[in-house]
Specification:
alpha/beta, about 45% helix, 8 strands, eight-stranded mixed β-sheet, 11 helices
């Protein structure tokens, strides 16, 4: 039986074209070549996936990188790997459990004490469609980790970020925010039947809303804040979805996933871009779909919802403001 074999040159063209198509669909590399020598960067959830790749890319650009993670064994291993690959020895692991308000306060206090500056904060860590778990403080896990934990962390680091201006806050959200809705009557899923997908979408909508509100509050401070959708990446984040567990999804949807699902390295590029690009200096309160600024969902642009969510979030995490002040007595702009 004869067998037709593609010439290597043709095969290479086909494969190369497929890779280029994948990059085009999924979004390409960070277009900015800017470096950040001496700038201090905090990346949450940096021991794996997008967070780890973000830390690696920014270490290559000369940053002083702090990996903020819950699992210190994995965090130390990631920091060691990044130091080895980049030859940048200013890469360190710090413990941060975003499911614990106590841990967040301890982390922020240590940063305030030990770091002279914080120039870039990347709120990357997340959980996705997990069972109905709660945090140490009783928050629904996805709301607690994806949104409330980062809300508290950001507020506690604002003084340091302002003192380091120009500085940037990058909030990793998701395209899933378009399916989200903020239910002020039951933010914490205590009254309704738990819907893990809806809870995830609500948490990511909250991230975009708080980005808008914080940007308004930070006007004139030299601190910018933007949110982004990194694209769909093949990481541990999707471990609770069952997306790749069935034979059907692996065989039938495999080619589609290959085209649309990014590597963590590619999915890290939007965070890197928002962190370093000189053309984004002064840009704040925006939502980026991968590398392009786009309008978020209509609810994400509702100023009244954003203000109400901010006030409720501050109350929940113990930053309840009387006369516009935080628990530390530092005024927050209104």
């Amino acid at each position: 039986m004869s067998r037709y074999v593609l010439p290597l040159s043709v095969l290479g063209t086909v494969v190369g074209g497929a890779v280029l198509l994948k990059d085009f669909v999924a979004g390409g590399a960070c277009p900015s070549k800017a470096t950040i020598p001496g700038k201090t960067v905090i990346v949450t959830g940096a021991n794996t996936g997008i967070g780890k790749q973000t830390a690696l890319e920014l270490a290559k650009r000369g940053g002083n990188i702090i990996l903020a993670c819950r699992d210190m064994e994995k965090c130390e291993a990631a920091a060691k790997e990044i130091r080895g690959e980049t030859l940048n020895h200013r890469v360190n692991a710090r413990h941060l459990d975003l499911a614990s308000l106590k841990s967040i306060r301890e982390f922020a206090a240590k940063v305030a004490e030990e770091e002279e500056h914080v120039h870039i904060l990347i709120n990357n860590a997340a959980v996705m469609r997990c069972p109905h778990w709660t945090t140490e403080d009783g928050f629904e896990m996805q709301l607690g980790v994806n949104y409330l934990g980062h809300f508290l962390l950001t507020n506690l680091l604002l003084d340091k970020l302002k003192a380091s201006a120009p500085s940037r806050i990058i909030n990793v959200s998701s395209l899933a925010h378009v399916a989200g809705h903020i239910d002020f009557e039951d933010l914490n899923w205590e009254k309704r039947k738990y819907d893990t997908k809806a809870a995830y979408c609500q948490s990511k909508l909250a991230v975009v809303l708080s980005t808008k509100e914080l940007s308004r509050r930070l006007q004139g401070t030299g601190v910018t804040v933007n949110a982004l959708h990194p694209g769909v990446a093949r990481t541990e984040l999707g471990r609770h979805t069952g997306m790749h567990s069935s034979a059907f999804s692996s065989f039938t949807l495999g080619p589609i996933f290959w085209l649309l699902v990014k590597s963590p390295q590619l999915a890290a590029q939007p965070s890197v871009y928002l962190a370093v690009a000189k053309e984004l200096e002064g840009v704040s309160g925006k939502y980026f779909d991968v590398l392009k600024e786009k309008a978020p969902a209509p609810e994400a642009e509702d100023e009244e919802v954003a203000k109400r969510l901010w006030a409720e979030s501050a109350r929940l995490v113990g930053l309840e403001m009387s006369h516009g002040s935080t628990e530390r007595g530092q005024p927050l702009p209104e």
